[in-house]
Amino acid sequence: YHLNGLTTEECLWRPAAVGLHVWQGDDGNWRADWPDREDYDIGPPSIGWLTWHMIFWWSMVIDHSFVARTLTREQVRWPGSAEDVRDSIERLQDNWRNAICQLTKEDLRSTEHTHWPFSDRPFGHVVAWANVELTKNAAEIGYARFLYAARSASSGTDHR
Q1: Is 66 buried (19+), middle (13-18) or exposed (0-12) by CB count in 10 A?
Q2: How many CB atoms within 10 Å of residue 23?
Q3: ω into residue 117 within 30 of 0, thus cis?
Q4: Residue 11 in contact with residue 51, Cβ under 8 Å?
Q5: How far apart are CA 92 and CA 86, in angstroms?
Q6: How far is it, in rounded angstroms, from Cα 154 to Cα 75?
Q7: How many CB atoms are located within 10 Å of the residue 89 CB?
Q8: What's the pLDDT score for residue 1?
């Protein structure tokens, strides 16, 4: 829902002077900041960073659970536009759904597919964790979009 109508301008807008963001390297590839800590003073992330974060988590968990288990954070790029973000997230959602829909209850209770971000828990915990992480990022995107939309609203408007 929060990706509907999302623009690249919104993705690249920074809600504060400091905060996690995406940036284009000299090689043309888009990269994302990575925090060395998770304190509030690092500032709010941009929508671009939040969408990268969703792509990062999903890409990593799919690769490490069902593919080669070789993908690293540094290899996960931000797509560069809102349209490509939507395409990437839709593709990842389809891949994830296809992979987990084939699992049995026994698969979810086992650790056979559990390699990242955990290694010693039932795979059902990974599925639940991914759901929470992605839901959190979606909510953050929605909130940032409200801030973006309101940034030019009249400050004298009473909304009581």
Answers
A1: middle
A2: 13
A3: yes
A4: yes
A5: 10
A6: 42
A7: 18
A8: 74
- Residue 153 is predicted with a pLDDT of 72
The reported pLDDT for the residue numbered 79 is 98
Place of tokens 């059902």: 124
> In one letter, which amino acid is 50?
L
| Segments in the chain below pLDDT 50 | none
Spell out the residues 6+ positions from residue 130 whose beta carbon is closer than 8 angstroms to its own: 57, 58, 61, 96
Please report which helix (H) or strand (E) contains residue 141, including its range: helix 123-150
Please tell me the distance from the alpha carbon of residue 107 to that of residue 54, in angstroms, as a whole number: 24
DSSP 152: T
Note the residue count of the chain. 160
**Which amino acid, 3?**
L
* Cα R_g (the chain), whole angstroms: 17
CATH number of the 8-150 domain = 1.20.120
Note the pTM of the prediction, 2 decimals.
Answer: 0.92
The answer to whether 107 touches 123, Cβ cutoff 8 Å, is yes
pLDDT tens string 136-158: 999 999 999 999 999 967 555 55
